[in-house]
Amino acid sequence: MPPAGRRLRAERLAPYALVAPAVLVVVALRLYPLALGVNFSFTGDGERDGTAVGLDNYATLFDDPLFLGALRNVGLLVLLLPVAVAIPGLLATFIYLRVPGHRLFRGVYFFPAVLSPVIAGAIFNLLLAFDGPANALLGTVGLGPVDWLGDPDVALFAVVGVHVWATFGMALVVFLAGFATLDPSLLDAARIDGAALPRLLRHVIVPGLTRTIQFVFVTTMIGLLTSMFGLLYVMTGGGPGGATYLPEYYIWIQQGQLDRPALASAASTVLFLVMVVVGLLQISLLRRSGRVD
């Protein structure tokens, strides 16, 4: 083969050679274990350990009120997702536009992210106790105490609020990086035209950060569905009455407490499918709203 042909062939193969190590890592550490877990979900536990049981584990899951409650809580988290994205997005906007107090935001916004979930949960256990500072503050304005962690209608919202507080720093960093790609002349033109902050957000900032918003939506969803175990374990233990169960906590109970790894694998498979479906729906909705190309 002539030297020019060999050079052209090498140039064509170079991208594949560069991505091959990453692909191998993903296959070995992600896809292969995922396939093993899915396969394991079709086997039995206890006396039927290693025996093929078909869809028995999935039938058991969807007959379990705790698991069905965990799935309902996933639906609630999806509804709360826009709020969890809007909070760091607005704070990043305040920092970027240098509104009064932006120096304080810039100095302290990342502090919660350095705390472990156990520490954050322990702090808010004290703050949200029935006789704690939060209820004392409510009492000063004439409002009755709230059983933040003991009321089934309130507990999950309290835990999600703590999770958002503890993790919004990472999303805010991503938003600030997105603002670095925003054309400042667009903002200047809008200001000259007298556009207020709501119009800046709607017509300049949101369209200019479409990819960033999409990325934050997906990563925040993954965090809500897979990174709340520490807070649940410390703050509520899945209670009261299973009201704060999420699939990841249910999986840990089945695997770590009840020694039912096959059932836990089935729950993990369902969680994975839920994440895929929710992620695809998010992308579809964002495209239909015109926010994603």
UniProtKB/TrEMBL annotation:
Every ABC transmembrane type-1 domain range: 71-282
The keyword Transport appears for this protein: yes
Pfam families xrefs: BPD_transp_1
Record lineage: Bacteria, Bacillati, Actinomycetota, Actinomycetes, Pseudonocardiales
Source domain of life: Bacteria
Transmembrane annotation, as ranges: 12-32, 74-97, 109-130, 154-182, 215-235, 262-281
Cell location: Cell membrane
Family: Belongs to the binding-protein-dependent transport system permease family.
Biological source species: Amycolatopsis magusensis
Entry protein name: Multiple sugar transport system permease protein
Keywords: Cell membrane, Membrane, Sugar transport, Transmembrane, Transmembrane helix, Transport
Gene3D superfamilies the UniProt entry points to: MetI-like (1.10.3720.10)
Record CDD domains: TM_PBP2
